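Q: Structure for this?
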Amino acid sequence: FDAVDVIRAKRDDQVLSPAQIDWVIDAYTRGVVADEQMSALAMAVYLNGMTDEEISAWTHAMIASGETMDFSGLDRPTADKHSTGGVGDKITLPLAPLVAVFGVAVPQLSGRGLGHTGGTLDKLEAIPGWRADLSNDEMLAMLRDPGAVICAAGAGLAPADKKLYALRDITSTVEAIPLIASSIMSKKIAEGTGSLVLDVKVGSGAFMKDHASAKRLAETMVTLGRNAGVRTSALLTDMSTPLGMTVGNALEVREAVEVLAGGGPADVVDLTVALAEEMLRLAGTNDVDVRAALTDGRAMDVWKTMIERQGGDPDADLPRAQETSEVVAESDGVLMELDALAVGMASWRLGAGRAKKEDPVQAGAGIEIHVKPGEAVRKGQPILTLHTDEPARFARAEESLAGAIVVEPAAEGADAAAASIV
Ligand code: URA
């Protein structure tokens, strides 16, 4: 095979054969196909799409580029959750220990954030002492006891995807359904989970801005999972406004701990419970009272053990940013819109996220949200508190929030807020 022929075929909207796909993914992983050639192919896929057969072959070629894990030796079923990425999405933190309470092991291999969406590992690294990198043996030991682990995916898992994702990120070829579906599912199938629940985000803060494309992405991923023998299902959930009341690493950990203590914002609790119930259902555990494990301390006990086993101190004070600044309502009325993408960008600019892979993140940076869409506000009332260690960052964060906060007079507000629920 020749890379130029493969690129030309996809450029001309032809269907690639499984053999062509196997070859190009393997050759790219080995450095035989160059980054610029893979960039051109990714753009051709972005523009012309792929058939279901091509997506399946592409996914399996990415799985075959590295090692696969096997949890079949565990004495209990496994279930994992994957979110397609959102703003304020700290659900993995309370969810993994919550599911483990019911005897289903959770191998939650996670990533770091890039761009405006946060990464689970960045959040947990806000906890003093906590480390993300575990050996496969350490990971297996945690799946036995306490029954859940959140850690970095080892370099050996789907290395083709690691290379390709970094390339897509800098060539504007991320938001293509065949590429997102194969990227996520290659990692999850290689990870060896028995069941998988996908939380596919819809709205301004998500890759998929509209319901129809989110549904297509969900169906594509569910089909890939089921065909590979993983019990897979998907929930479509709203990402037009941030989840919960915090965005940013330590701020989100604080909120996750509130949920584990039986409190926390209703939207975070409800989504955590819905995803836990779906993971347990797929793993064959029905009719359990999931909410009770949040209020009676069982999920918190698992959480504390998980954090301690990875070197963290679950009772330590979390880092706080040195400076804060408030964004207030400019008029009386109802908050109609608090745009997820804008809040994510602002949090990123405050230092919670990174622009390049190697950049450090500020543990304390981010945004506290005081008012959610649908709620009344008075002129001058704080809507957001911005947190950062570097006050020079406030101006750029405020720029990203321009137009993102919409307050309208009360009467109209009520109707439109109801209509905006997905
Ligand atoms: N997350 C991934 O792992 N891959 C994508 O392509 C998009 C989101």
